[in-house]
Task: structure prediction
Amino acid sequence: MGDLKIKKEDIIRALSTVQEPDLKKDLVTLNMIKDIELGVGEVRFTVVLTTPACPLKERIRKECEEAIHTHVDENLSVVIDMTADVTSSRVGTALLPNVKNIIAIASGKGGVGKSTVTANLAMALKLSGAKVGIIDADISGPSIPVMFGAEEMQPLVSQIDGKNMIQPIMQYGIKMISMGFLAPQDNPVPWRGPMATQALRQFFSDTHWGELDYLLIDLPPGTSDIHLSLVQLVPVTGAVIVTTPQKVALADATKGLMFFRQPQINVPVLGVIENMAYFTPEELPENKYYIFGKDGGKNLAIKYETDLLGEIPLVQSIREAGDEGKPAVMSDSIIASAFKQSAELLAQQVAIRNATKEKTKPVQVKV
Ligand SMILES: Nc1ncnc2c1ncn2[C@@H]1O[C@H](COP(=O)(O)OP(=O)(O)OP(=O)(O)O)[C@@H](O)[C@H]1O
Result:
C-alpha cells in the first residue's frame, strides 16, 4: 500500500513540470512517463527516452527527482528506470517497415574517414543499447568487412515467406551487409552505375534486416548514382557529413551537404563530423596539433546552419583499430568517449528531427 497522502496524480502533476530539453514539451505530454508505483516513502516510475543514447539522460533523471521533491514531498525516495523507445518518422513504408531510422553517412572527398566514423558511430549506438545495422553502399570499394574483422564471413541465404533473403552478417551485435561479403575482393569487378544501383537495391529489398533502431549507410565518396538511388529507394531520416579540416576537403563536403539539401532531394542534414580534426599523441592528449587547419568542420556547420556532431582527433590507435577489425570505440580510451559523444549528439538530432519534421518519403527524381 502506498502512502495515503500521495496519489499518482500528484506524481504526474509534478512530472508535467519537467521539460524534455530538446523537444520543448513536458514529459507527461510527450507520454514519456510509464508504470508509476507508489510504495511506503517511495515512488517508482519509468522514463521512456527517445533513444538509449540520449545525452540528456542524467539531466532528465535529476530534474524528475527535483520536481517530485519540490512539488510532492522532499523526503520521498524516487526510483527511476530509464528505458528508450527509439522514435521514427518512417511509419508505414513498404521497404524495411521495421527499420526506424535510416541515416546516410556521406563525405565529399575520399579517404576522410567516413567508413571509420560509420563503424564507430554504429558501435557506439549499439553499446548504448540500440539495435543497429550498417549497409556498406561503397559497392566498388567496401571497407566495412575489414573494419569489423569480418572479411572472411559470408552471409547465408534463407527462405522467408517464400522468398530467398540474404541474412546480414552479425558482428559485435551489429547487422551488416557489404559487397565485400559477396564478391571476391582480390578479383574486383568493374562496377558500372546500374550494377551498383542494383546491388544497393538488393541490400534493401533482398536482405532480412528485421527490427532496427538505426540503419547506417556508408556511402561512397562524392555524389554518385548510389546517392540518388538511396534517396529514391527508401525514406532517409537524415544525413551526416564527414569532413577533414583542409580547404579542399571542406569544399567537397559542401557539395556533399548541398546534394541532400536540394529541394527535390530534401533529406535533412543532421550534422557535420570533423575527422582528423587535430593530431594528438595518445599518451599526451592535451597536446593538439592542428596540422590540417582548425575549426573547418565547425565553420561548415555554422555556415550551413547545422550541428557539429564531433571533432575526432587523428590518433594512431584509430587506424590500428580499423585495421585490426575492432572499432576504436570498443576500447577504453579518450577516443572511445569522442565517438560516444558524437553518437549521442547524432541520436539526439534524429529524435529532434522525428519530433519536429514531416514523415519521410522516398524522393521522385529522374536519374
Ligand atoms: N581519426 C583517425 N585517426 C587515425 N586514422 C584514421 C582516422 N580516421 C580514419 N583513419 C584511417 O584513415 C584511413 C581511411 O579511412 P576510411 O577508410 O574510414 O576513409 P573513407 O573516407 O571511408 O575512405 P573511402 O573514401 O575510401 O571510402 C583508414 O586507414 C583509417 O583507419
In short: The mean pLDDT is 91. The radius of gyration is 22 Å.
